[in-house]
Amino acid sequence: MQIILSYSILSKNIKINKIYRTLILPVVLYGCEIRSLTLREEHRLMVLENGLLMRIFVPKSDAVAEEWRRLLNKDLYDLYSSPNIIQVIKSRRIRWAEHMACMGDRRGAYRTLVGGRRPIGRPRCRWGGGNIKMDLQDMG
Fold first, then answer.
1. What does the radius of gyration of the chain's CA atoms come to, in whole angstroms?
2. Rounded Cα distance, 96 and 116, in Å
């Protein structure tokens, strides 16, 4: 996909709407509602998204300095004008938590995600206890 995203023949609209949003994002976001992300995984997802957006929005030529300059991350997000991948994951996780809250505690999926024994030692952040609370704070 990197080669296709680098083609100058395709317009940016096609690259973003047809390739990035319909082919790449669904693969990356598959099952993101039930996973708890670590900071390292969040950083890797941001690097992936920035790299893909860099390929879509190629470096620009600066008319004043008459040289090519790379786009900064804030320039990319201004051009892309959609929420970043971490915000999408958090909003999907909150939506899934609302769905799980409506299920009730008798359903197997609810008991699997919320309950259960924790391993010995310092366990990873749990889906229900830690991640959803942090997501609600981050998203407001």
1. 19
2. 19
